[in-house]
Amino acid sequence: MTQHTASVCVYCGSRFGTDPAYRNAATDLGSALAANGWRLVYGAGDVGLMGTVAVAAQIDGAQTFGVIPEHLMKWEVGKRDLTTFGVTENMHERKKVMFMNSDAVVVLPGGAGSLDEFFEVLTWRQLGLHAKPILLLNVNGFWDPLIALLDHVVDQGFAEDSILDFVTVVSDVDQAITALRAALS
Questions:
Q1: Which letter does DSSP use for residue 44 in this model?
Q2: By CB count within 10 A, which of 19, 42, 95, 143 is most buried?
Q3: In sequence order, which residues have a C-beta less than 8 Å from that of residue 172 and are 6 or more positions away?
Q4: 60 near 34, Cβ under 8 Å?
């Protein structure tokens, strides 16, 4: 019988952002996934934080599974030297394949695409479609406005308090790894 390798889906920016701490967190996360024997599942880009987390994971020996839609191959520079590299027709299919091939989700700093991915898995969790852990890696308070928005949505009666329990906010990679170990064991 084959043992299951836990897979962690990482959503993050195709840019580096303005704070060097974002890139450092991406590097540390990729290395930590490898150190724990977990497979990285991500958007297959070789740019920004996406490329950073993948390279770090690869250097330290992690399996990598990248999924990219055809129309982003040039823009996000599809990273073809991954353990598994998949090309989809569109963004919807990309998100589904990434999610279905993961056991947990970690969201590093990113832009509209990362927010889209986060809200989709959060919505699916709210609807009872999965019970996978969702972690916001709140590097230097990057996600503070998003956390405040989620609180506001609850305060204004558009979601139950339980939606806040579906997201674990961690401030650094060490906390993320501790939370993932507890969830994936």
A1: -
A2: 42
A3: 25, 137, 139
A4: yes
What tokens were used for 113? Answer: 């695409």
**Residue 109 DSSP class:** S
Nearest to 37 by CA among 165, 149, 184: 184
Using a cut of 0.90, tell me whether the model's pTM lies above it. Answer: yes
Residue with tokens 């989709």: 120
Confidence bin at 166 (pLDDT 50/70/90) = very high
Would you list the DSSP string of 67-103? EEEGGGTTTTTB---SSEEEEESSHHHHHHHHHHT-S
User: Which pLDDT tens digit goes with each residue over 117-129?
Assistant: 999 999 999 999 9
| Cα gap 171→139, rounded to integer Å | 6
CA dihedral 169, 171, 174, 180 (to 10 degrees): 10
Using CA atoms, how far apart are residues 66 and 133, in angstroms rounded to an integer?
20
Dist. CA 114–CA 108, nearest whole Å: 8
Q: Where is average pLDDT lowest: 33-47, 77-91, 106-120?
A: 77-91
Pair 57, 87: CB distance under 8 Å: no
